[in-house]
What we know:
The protein is built from nine helices and 14 strands. The chain has helices at residues 2-15, 23-38, 90-95, 125-137, 169-172, 222-238, 262-273, 303-314, 326-331; strands at 42-62, 65-67, 70-71, 78-87, 102-105, 141-145, 164-167, 180-201, 206-212, 247-253, 278-284, 294-299, 319-321, 338-341. Strands 1, 2, 3, 4, 5, 6, 7, 8, 9, 10, 11, 12, 13 and 14 form a 14-stranded mixed beta sheet that branches.
Amino acid sequence: MTKIKEHLKVLATDIGPRLTGAPGNKRATAYVADVLRELGYQVEQQQFDAMDWEDNGATLKVDGQEIPVQSADYSNPANAVGELVIVDTLESLKTTNVKGKICVLTGDLTTEVLMPKNFTFYNPESHQQIIAALESGEPTAIISVSHSDEPTAVIQDGDFEIPVLGVSQNDGEKLQSGHRAHVVIKTSRSKSTGENVLGHLGNGQKIAIVAHVDTAPKTIGALDNASGVATLLAIAEKLKDWHGKSALEFVVMNGEDNYAMPGEMVVSEHLAAESNAYKIVVNLDGIGMRGSKVAYSDYEMPDGFKKIFEKAFSQREEFVTVDPWQWVIIWFTSQWACLRLR
């Protein structure tokens, strides 16, 4: 526990936000690589293209009155003046002229966060239709009205070019079609790189322990997922003198909370290319939430493995089984067995 706390402090407190491609993310992967190397593991670093994104705030004025707003994650910058046009259904979005105007999304269009347009693993057709209608409509900017007191935008996508900001539900009620608005979004995108870090030990079919190191843009990610990485590093230290029949592989992947999942795509390709080399993959995510039990779910796991884990976990009251996550089912294909703990 002492080691876990030390790693957690470095990742969440000393480094903080770890957006893929950002300086904090690079510091985190360098730290992880150094720890694994010092423990005696053979370290492999997989580099990939990424995007750094910075947010310096946003403003919205309607008829001269300022309304609190929040830039959408990964949004392009904007300085746009135009007429507000409110749309609340896909049909109204398709039939309303929003070209050159500031499009306000509300109602049915903002009931859930839309999957990024190029997200591979899970992308409902209804989400794709909304994105396509916005791109073909060509508004100068988009205002997303939240269904809560938080100004959360439904579009958080670095591949989406139209600038986006969010307003709370209460403030969204102040917006009316035909009024003049001035939108300023002070953000920037820049090309960058990121890394996955893999630590190898031993020979034979592999047991892989996996955790993602990145965070969403505006969080230090203590639970999601500095705790998972800290636990992975503690396990790696406990097993540094491993001499079992299976090989160990500790995979610190990058981009789970990123719109494009760039590092996870590299890891997925790596696992798929060597699927026969793996005995089991154990994914750690959100470990140690206060007041919560440890949830686990299995994916394509053979009956023999299931019996072993069910027997072990049933003897500990802090463990509880949960249904598999849909996108994880797709990501962890039938090519290998996976256990997910969170």
